[in-house]
């Protein structure tokens, strides 16, 4: 497979390179692009030293099977149309195209069928949404979910390299806020992305919109409170779900335990530090909510892996299979 990564030097781009190697994808070409700042840097794919090139409109002329974009919405909007002229598909990790009606927003385990026969831009969902929507899809199929209320605890790597740097510098005594609206070290910040007129933040709005689109369930009500916490890697979510039909706790836990990409723990729980190199969505502390029509659980996943790189690569593999 001939692959290009745009934003290869970023937190997600680097994880894409690592994930491609871990997943042993057959690659004949792997080209890495970033801004002029990083041109000439070396990154490693297993033992191969690869030179990072500056992204230009002509970067894609040699032709690729897949171009993976992970350099922010502005870069995707400006360059994805050029990439598309020379690739079977573009997989975009940014928010640029996610809510475009004609662009599939894909978590392959849930709506991978949308990829069959499709060519064009494919949107990779928001990180917290991907990990949460995997267990929600299982419960939706079983009980018809109607209302979801979540609070997130999101790692600084969700803001990319600058988020990690802000935390490291503040740990070393800096009082600069860096990329955040408040100090993050030894603190929590109840704002991720800009605040909208309706009082929700951009991240909260993404969870609402994207979950409904992926589940193709536009009856679903969802209220999110997204919080940045001083954790390096791994987003955690406290999820409360109300269902149309009465829930059987044993059946729900069995279904979750047997679902692809979900790791269910009945007798313990997962913290971000427990994730290691896991590419899965971890579900634990499953219990009834306020009555037999509701459930609540704890959900943790690596935002750079499942929440970004891994889902993008799974989209690529599913697309390659379905074309
Ligand atoms: N971090 C997460 O957990 C996560 C999860 C899901 C989705 N995403 C999305 O993934 C994208 C990347 O996030 P990240 O966390 O990896 O950010 P990051 O660490 O800040 O990396 C940004 C990357 O974009 C490149 N870039 C910036 N401006 C560019 C330009 N004009 N032309 C070419 N390349 C340019 C940077 O290159 P230089 O090194 O040259 O600056 C770097 O490689 C964002 O759209 C983000 O919303 C992130």
Radius of gyration: 19 Å
Please give the order of strands in the largest beta sheet: 3-4-2-1-5-6-7
- In sequence order, what are the helices and strands, one letter per element? EHEEEEHEHEHEHHEEHEEEH
Query: How many DSSP H or I helices?
Result: 8
Named CATH architecture of the largest domain: 2-Layer Sandwich
Q: Tell me the domain tally.
A: 2
Question: What is the name of the CATH class of the largest domain?
Answer: Alpha Beta
Beta-strand segment tally: 13
Strand content: 25-35%
Kindly report the name of the CATH homologous superfamily of the largest domain.
Dihydrodipicolinate Reductase, domain 2
Largest sheet: 7 strands, mixed
Overall shape: it is globular
Ions and ligands: NADP nicotinamide-adenine-dinucleotide phosphate
Helix content: 25-40%
Distance separating the two termini = 14 Å
How confident is the prediction overall: mean pLDDT?
A: 97
Structural class: alpha/beta
User: Uncertain segments of ≥5 residues (pLDDT<50)?
Assistant: none
* CATH fold group of the largest domain: Dihydrodipicolinate Reductase, domain 2
């Amino acid at each position: 497979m001939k692959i290009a990564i745009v934003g290869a030097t970023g937190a997600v781009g680097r994880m894409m390179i690592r994930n491609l190697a871990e997943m042993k994808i057959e690659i004949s070409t792997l080209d890495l692009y970033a801004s002029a700042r990083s041109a000439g840097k070396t990154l490693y794919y297993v033992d191969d030293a690869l030179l990072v090139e500056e992204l230009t409109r002509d970067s894609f002329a040699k032709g690729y099977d897949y171009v993976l974009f992970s350099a922010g919405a502005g870069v995707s909007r400006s360059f994805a149309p050029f990439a598309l002229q020379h690739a079977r598909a573009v997989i975009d990790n940014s928010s640029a195209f996610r809510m475009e009606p004609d662009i599939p927003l894909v978590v392959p385990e849930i709506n991978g069928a949308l990829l069959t026969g499709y060519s064009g831009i494919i949107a990779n969902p928001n990180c917290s949404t991907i990990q949460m929507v995997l267990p929600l899809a299982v419960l939706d199929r079983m009980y018809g979910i109607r209302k979801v209320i979540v609070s997130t605890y999101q790692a600084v790597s969700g803001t990319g390299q600058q988020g990690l740097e802000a935390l490291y510098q503040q740990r070393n005594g800096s009082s600069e806020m860096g990329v955040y609206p408040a100090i993050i070290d030894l603190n929590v910040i109840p704002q991720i992305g800009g605040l909208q007129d309706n009082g929700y933040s951009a991240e909260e709005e993404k969870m609402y919109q994207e979950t409904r689109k992926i589940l193709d369930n536009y009856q679903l009500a969802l209220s999110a409170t997204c919080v940045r916490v001083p954790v390096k890697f791994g987003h955690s979510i406290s999820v409360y779900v109300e269902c149309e039909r009465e829930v059987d706790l044993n059946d729900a836990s069995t279904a979750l335990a047997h679902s692809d990409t979900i790791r269910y723990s009945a007798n313990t729980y997962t913290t971000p530090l427990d994730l290691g190199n896991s590419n899965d969505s971890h579900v634990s502390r499953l219990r009834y909510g306020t009555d037999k029509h509701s459930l609540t659980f704890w959900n943790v996943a690596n935002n750079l892996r499942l929440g970004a790189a891994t889902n993008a690569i799974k989209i690529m593999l599913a697309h390659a299979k379905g074309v």
